[in-house]
Amino acid sequence: MTIGVAEGTRAASVKVARRLLETEGPEALTMRRIAGELGIQAPSLYKHFSDKRGLEAAVIAEGLREFGHAMNKSLASKAEPVRALARAYRTFGLQHPHLYRLMNDRELPRDLLPPGLEDSVALPIVMTFGDRSLARVAWALAHGLVSLELAGRFPADADLNGVWDEAVRVLQVARAG
Amino acid sequence: MTIGVAEGTRAASVKVARRLLETEGPEALTMRRIAGELGIQAPSLYKHFSDKRGLEAAVIAEGLREFGHAMNKSLASKAEPVRALARAYRTFGLQHPHLYRLMNDRELPRDLLPPGLEDSVALPIVMTFGDRSLARVAWALAHGLVSLELAGRFPADADLNGVWDEAVRVLQVARAG
DNA sequence: GTCTATAGTGGGATAGAC
DNA sequence: GTCTATCCCACTATAGAC
Question: Which of B14, B45, B101, B125 has its CA 20 to 30 A from that of B58?
Answer without folding.
Answer: B125
